[in-house]
Design a protein that fits this description.
Helix content: under 10%
Radius of gyration: 63 Å
Structural class: mainly beta
Distance between the termini: 206 Å
GO cellular component, one term: membrane
Domain Right handed beta helix: 789-909
Number of domains: 6
InterPro entries: Beta_helix, PbH1, Pectin_lyas_fold, Pectin_lyase_fold/virulence, SJ_maturation_regulator
Keywords: Glycoprotein, Repeat, Signal
Organism: Mesotoga prima
Length: 1183
């Protein structure tokens, strides 16, 4: 018992049978020295040699320990470094106490013997434990070594160091002395656990049967290093080597990991770059913990083995994960890599990097150890996702069997740089590569994207650069959002993808290009908006197939300029005639599959050599243009639209259009109100309507024009606003739907030419502009189909070389003027109107009709209701009425104007004349006055020589103003019965079926201050011829009044001028009837076959009155005449007065009756036929 400062030197000694009380043969404690050499210590009941914990200095050499309980027992903090001594039949050869080593300790023994660790050994901070080559350390159950200090275990190839189970008899002998009764097993002891600042160097070591409780045989954590080389870690009940998460430094080379649960487990943030170590028989070769990498980490392993993730791997901002060439990373189900920092995966052509399904045995061995029981499949693991500022570089990588949850294999949603070159992404449940954000640069070159259930490549942002890709057997080859460019180079190859290229709905915000080869197509999978300031260029040969109900909305610029050899296509996704076949699109394409290309606001579009088909769903048009931007369509075909092939919406759009074809659309072109369409080069075929013109208001300058082979269909009322202009080009055929019209408040210019007149006609009129309603001969045009061209307010119009027909619905006119603007019509045909061909309600501004024809109109050829219409050299044929006017309108019809087969040539509606009106019609025709007409005070009606006025039954002409009818002897003015065929022809078109008769019409009634000047006028067949009352002047000369039922001339009262001369009164009830106080002095007047020639009413004469008449005729005084005081009745010579029975003349004033010898004045009986003829028309019946 050597204690305190005691010391001993034992050489060639034998110590036997000791151990009473102390339990040891030699006990060493304290600080003194002990040296034992060449000695034998045997049969001690306890420890042959016990070195207590403490500060002892101890040396052993060439000793023999036999038959002791423990040969040597080493207390903690004590060294035993003796590979020369032998141990025989001890229960334990070398017993190592557990505890904490706080100094530098050395352990070593011959390889035939075991050093048995009997408790946890902790190497404290600053302390070290050195283990000699060839040493065998065996651990009792659940024991371990904890390293806070340093472990140096440097074996040699021929003298390895062993850390093993106490029961392991394969090395160090039968340490537990039980022969073969017990065997070592995984988890027999715990671990070597390197912690905090602890470090270890293990060379040529074997660690076996550890892993109890700690789940690993060798554990490394903390900040210091571990170097393990040429070593073996086997049979661990857990991880052979576990490098825990942290900041550890770890070196591994040429090691062997066999038959462990996990060969190597790497905690997050730990590197393993070892292409030399081997793995065999482990449940898992290399296990990668999930978590966050905060530093620069390297992973690399021999390609025969797999590194298997066990959770999501996050590469933090500022951190880097580098994968070495040849490395195989296998992912457990639903794991992923999240990159906020940088991922560097640069393989080589001969050593690619694989990131794959845990079950994929084709690379990295059978990682899950199940042979062929399981196989990899699409969607096993999640993704590699680049986020925030994350970046990645993939060269010669193979990435497969991912896409779970994230629906993509590699996802870039970061602002960092991304490149993938010479790589493959395959078998993804979703998109192979998805780029949500291309900022920072995104390159995809010389890469294969195959067998992905989504897209091979899907990018949602512009800026992706592609080159020389192989895109094979994906659901979609390349998928992108609308705001991204795609320019497929000549080397890129597509094969057996369900869809080659698919563009998702969205908004183009920048300058974007779409270009693909013609053997594939772009499927536009939803609506695309081109924002203001942005542009989309579609290159020649590109085929765009559009999903149902999708559209282009163009607020920016769309440029689609194909070539004759390489046109651009916009079509139904089911259209297999171009761009290959899209699987599942088995039904044929049809009109209205997709919506439209809508160019709106400031948006503009340019189409050249394009083929645009099968649009029109919902929007009702394929190209729909509105707003202020430009549109150009040329050399293009727009076909199979459910609606309008081209619709120019109402607005202020600029539009260029030529050499196009519209085929099998509902409407070839639809022009919104306020928009122009002038194109005589474009052709139309198989459309329901070729050119559809919307109704509405034109507010600017607008032009319409097309080839005369086709029709422009007006489908609603068209209003030309004040200040606006509608110009219609020569050759245009304007057809109207039922009840539509053009209303002109501004200006309408319709200028045709002799070879290319302009037509305004019925939709059903197939004689011009083709079969516009597409019914063959089932329907025919008819009068009254459309309404009119109405010129209102200040509206103006100019018609030259036009044909206007089949109008009149509702408005009962073809052209209607009720404006103060000028209207001119020349060399124009107006026909088949249900009503008036041209009706003028207001002639202010002037109306000129020159060399035009009005034919087969159910009303009047021209009907004007106001003064100011000039008609020259025109022809009126087969109308109900040739010209119709109101009484207050002048009629001045020249001799070059002709009438034929009208029911009535000229018809004047009854009414009031309030201005200065002139009626003049050629002698070969008649003016028919339809009813009672008055000439208002201060107004005047002048009927020119030769004019024949025929009046309707019961008509009166009432004169409160002035009536002037100055005929000539050769061309008198006639006012007569409508049925009078003796002048002006057969006006009522009944041949001789009717004849004129007395009393047909009423009278000419000149009253109050009304005046009349009548010369060479013939009035016939009225009830009363002329009734003159009032104070106005009256002149009747050289005229004839005949066949009047009552009084041919009735002079009721008057105090002003009265001039009568050389008139004839024939076959009237009364020739002249004079009211009291009225003079009659016309000794040239002639009377024939009247009931009474001159009938004088009885009464009081209160003014100066003159009676004068040829002696061949008589005044019949019908009642008592009294000449009042101060009144004078003068009777001219030769005058005959005959009195009714019992009537007489009473003179209180003055009577002047100065006859002559040859012309006496006769006062006689009414029945006296000897003077003044047979006045009572009874022959000799009475005397």
């Amino acid at each position: 018992n050597i204690r305190n400062e005691g010391s001993a030197f034992l050489e060639w000694c034998e110590i036997s049978f000791a151990g009473a009380s102390t339990g040891a043969g030699i006990l060493k404690a304290g600080s003194g020295s002990l040296r034992v050499t060449n000695s034998i210590i045997r049969r001690v009941r306890g420890d042959g040699l016990r070195i207590s914990s403490g500060y002892s200095f101890f040396e052993s050499l060439n000793n023999l320990f036999m038959y002791n309980t423990n040969g040597v027992r080493i207390g903690i903090n004590s060294s035993f470094f003796d590979q020369t001594s032998n141990f025989v039949s001890n229960e334990v050869d070398i017993h190592l106490d557990g505890g904490t080593i706080s100094s530098n300790v050395r352990w070593g023994a011959g390889g035939d013997y075991s050093m048995t660790v009997t408790g946890d050994v902790t190497v404290g901070v600053g302390a070290s434990l050195e283990i000699a080559p060839g040493t065998v350390l065996k651990f009792r159950q659940n024991n371990r070594i904890l390293l806070y200090g340093e472990l140096q275990a440097r074996g040699e190839e021929s003298r390895q160091i062993f850390f093993t189970d106490l029961r392991d008899d394969s090395v160090g002998g039968d340490a537990n002395g039980d022969g073969n009764e017990t065997l070592p097993e995984n988890g027999g002891w715990r671990s070597i656990n390197i912690l905090n600042e602890g470090s270890a160097v293990l060379e040529w070591c074997t660690l076996a049967y550890g892993g109890r409780s700690d789940g690993a045989t060798l554990l490394k954590s903390g900040a210091s290093f571990l170097r393990i080389s040429n070593s073996t870690i086997i049979n661990s009940a857990g991880d052979g080597l576990r490098v825990a998460a942290g900041y550890s430094l770890f070196e591994s080379s040429n090691n062997y990991f066999g038959h462990n649960s996990v060969g190597l487990r790497l905690g997050i943030n730990s590197s393993f770059s070892d292409l030399t170590s081997r793995f065999e028989g482990n449940d898992l070769d290399i296990h990668l913990d999930g978590g966050t990498i905060n530093t620069n980490v390297v992973w690399g392993a021999n390609s025969d083995y797999s590194m298997v993730t066990n959770g999501d791997i996050t590469i933090a901002a500022g951190a880097t994960l580098e994968l070495k060439a040849g490395t195989v990373i296998k992912m457990r189900q639903n794991n992923r890599i999240l990159v906020y920092g940088h991922l560097e995966a640069k393989g080589r052509e001969d050593a690619p990097i694989n990131l794959t399904d845990f079950r994929n045995d084709l690379v990295g061995g059978d990682a899950n150890g199940d042979g062929d029981e399981t196989s990899p499949e699409i969607g096993w693991w999640r993704s590699i996702s680049l986020l925030n500022e994350g970046s990645a570089s993939f060269h010669y990588c193979v990435i497969g069997y991912l896409g779970a949850s994230d629906r993509a294999g590699v996802i870039k949603n970061s602002t960092g740089a991304f490149s993938i070159l010479h790589s493959t992404i395959h078998d993804v449940a979703g998109d192979g590569l998805r780029v949500d954000n291309a900022v920072g640069g995104t390159e995809v070159r010389y890469t294969t994207l195959s067998h992905n259930s989504g897209s091979g490549l899907y990018y949602k942002t512009d800026g992706v650069k592609t080159e020389a890709l192989s895109i094979v057997s994906n659901a979609i080859g390349i998928r992108l959002l609308a705001g991204s460019s795609i320019e497929v180079d000549e080397v890129t190859y597509f094969d057996e993808n369900s869809i080659a290229v698919q563009i998702e709905p969205g908004t183009v915000l920048g300058d974007v290009v779409w270009a693909t080869p013609g053997y594939i197509s772009i499927l536009m999978n939803g609506s695309v908006t081109i924002a203001a300031g942005a542009s989309l260029i579609v290159k020649p040969e590109t085929v765009i197939k559009i999903a149902q109900n999708s559209m282009f909305a163009v607020d920016g610029k769309l440029i689609a300029l194909g070539t004759e050899e390489s046109p651009i296509f916009f079509t139904d996704l089911r259209d297999n005639t171009v761009g290959g076949e899209i699987p599942g699109a088995e039904s044929p394409p049809e009109a209205g599959w997709w919506r439209s290309i809508s160019i709106r606001n400031d948006g503009s579009a340019y189409f050249d050599w394009c083929r645009i088909s099968y649009g029109g769903r919902t929007d009702g048009g394929t190209i729909v243009k509105s707003g202020r931007g430009a549109l150009s369509v040329s050399n293009s075909v727009i076909a199979n639209t459910s609606g309008d092939g081209l619709r120019i919406a109402a607005g202020y759009s600029s539009f260029e259009h030529f050499d196009n074809r519209y085929v099998s659309n509902t409407n070839g072109v639809r022009i919104g109100i306020g928009s122009s369409f002038v194109d005589q080069t474009t052709t139309f075929e198989g459309n329901a309507v070729d050119i559809h013109l919307d109704g509405g208001t034109v507010n600017g300058a607008v032009a319409w024009g097309s080839s005369s082979d086709y029709s422009m269909i007006v489908t609603g009322d068209v209003n030309i606003a004040a200040g606006a202009l509608l110009s219609i080009h020569s050759g245009s055929v304007i057809k109207f739907r039922q009840n539509n019209r053009i209303i002109v408040y501004g200006v309408l210019e319709a200028t045709g030419n002799e070879n290319l007149p302009i037509y305004f006609t019925d939709l059903r009129d197939d004689s011009v502009g083709g079969d516009a309603n597409r019914d063959g001969e089932e329907t025919v045009p008819a009068s009254g189909w459309w309404r009119s061209i109405s010129i209102l307010t200040d509206g103006k119009a100019d018609f030259e070389m036009c044909v206007i027909r089949y109008a009149g619905y509702g408005d009962k006119a073809g052209v209607l003027k009720n404006s103060s603007g000028h209207v001119a019509m020349s060399h124009t045909l107006v026909e088949h109107i249900a009503g008036d061909g041209f009706r003028v309600d207001n002639a202010a501004g002037g109306v000129m009709v020159r060399e035009s024809t009005f034919s087969h109109n159910s009303g009047a050829g021209i009907n004007y209701r106001t003064d100011g219409v000039v008609i020259e050299g025109s022809f009126f044929e087969s109308n109900d009425i040739g010209i119709r006017a109101v009484a207050n309108s002048s009629l001045s019809i020249d001799e070059r104007t002709h009438f034929a087969e009208n029911n009535r040539d000229i018809h004047v509606d009854a009414g009031t004349i309030s201005g200065e009106i002139v009626w003049r019609v050629p002698e070969h025709t008649t003016l028919f006055l339809s009813g009672s007409t008055s000439i208002s005070r201060d107004a005047r009606l002048e009927i020119l020589a030769g004019t024949v006025v025929k009046v309707a039954q019961n008509t009166s002409i009432t004169v409160d103003g002035e009536l002037i009818a100055i005929g000539t002897e050769q061309s008198p003015v006639h006012i007569t019965d409508l049925r009078d065929d003796s002048v002006g022809g057969d006006t009522n078109r009944d041949a001789e079926a009717t004849a004129p008769d007395r009393g047909w019409w009423n009278s000419v009634n000149i009253r109050e201050s009304g005046k009349a000047k009548l010369d060479w006028i013939t009035i016939g067949y009225s009830q009363s011829g002329i009734i003159r009352s009032g104070s106005g002047s009256f002149t009747l000369t050289n005229s004839t009044i005949h066949n009047v039922t009552g009084d041919a001339l009735k002079l009721l009262a008057g105090y002003l001028s009265l001039e009568l001369s050389n008139n004839s009164f024939i076959s009237n009830g009364t020739g002249v009837r004079l009211a009291v106080n009225v003079s009659f002095d016309d000794r040239l007047a002639r009377f024939e076959e009247n009931g009474t020639d001159v009938f004088v009413d009885g009464g009081m004469i209160t003014s100066d009155v003159v009676f004068g008449l040829s002696s061949e005729y008589s005044f019949y005084v019908s009642g008592e005449l009294t000449i009042s005081k101060n009144a004078i009745l003068e009777i001219k010579s030769g005058t005959v007065l005959k009195f009714a029975a019992y009537r007489g003349l009473r003179v209180s004033g003055s009577l002047k009756a100065a006859g002559t010898e040859f012309a006496p004045i006769v006062f006689t009986d009414w029945r006296d036929d000897s003077f003044g003829g047979d006045s009572n028309r009874d022959g000799d019946d009475s005397l």
